[in-house]
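To: structure subgroup
Subject: Chain for Friday's discussion

All,

I'm putting the inputs and outputs inline so they're searchable in the archive.
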Amino acid sequence: MGARATRITREEFLTPPEFLGLESIHNPAARVGGARIELIRTGDETRLGARYQQIPMRIFPPFAFPTEPAALLYLINLTGGLMDGDAHLVELTARAGARALVTGQSASRIHPALDSYATQQWAVTVEDDACLVVMPGPAIPFQGCRYYQRARVELAPRARLIWGDVWFPGRYDRGVLSERFQFDRIVQDLEVRREGRLIYRDRFRWDGPWTDEEARWYFGGNLATANLIIAGPTPEADALPEAGPGLLRSVFPLDVDVTCVRWCGPPTAVTTDLANVALRVAGYWTDGPGGRPWLVESGGLAPNHWFSPPAG
């Protein structure tokens, strides 16, 4: 079966215990939408199979480049971010042999909450011999926002997945109007299973706003943190690019062929390094040791995407 072409309704979303009683059922401005997406392998390309999209989310056909092993699929939010009460559902299936980077077109701006909370929830299935990289894009929590991100991933025995999240402190570079760590509450919940067996789980709850001392405890005195889960073979640590100055990166081998990488540091450096590691590991999967990273060294992709290496 392909993606279900049925309307996405609020009943499909899970409410975490932290937000019980805050469900947005009476807010006419709150938008429920998302996408149901099937990625299929056709010849040497990855293309859309069955798909369904619902405002405010839109999907472009995957970009395919002649010299690249993977396609690029953008998820587009037509509004200015995630508003109070918004709920976005992404159901994503990568069929056998598919190779793709799935990402947002820019950072996710999470707007202040008045009565409810915003949520983005993912259900991902990856079949045998598929290689899928999912990087939703950096999250920017505005002052007073409440946000719940949930992802459930099911992997076949030979499936490979990379999932990367980047968290900024808010609108941090605004002088006296800075909103560093002024969110109300953020809950993130990620589970990855292979053949039904849990191989990775990460859940955190951040209650804000944070004092300077609390921000130092969580972020180590930095302005960004990130997490990358790699479900598949990982190159030796010395084969990964070196972390840049002022950047803290830790690599944690977990189960067989499961690795977690975490960062703290300046926002641009954290974002660049996460994308670099993710796409280099993906290149290792498709082209072996020394293989080019997916997409970012392609002559067909302009260097103006959020995951592009900075100029110079």
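Points worth raising on Friday:
The CA atoms of residues 30 and 85 lie 5 Å apart.
Helices lie at 212-219, 267-287.

D.
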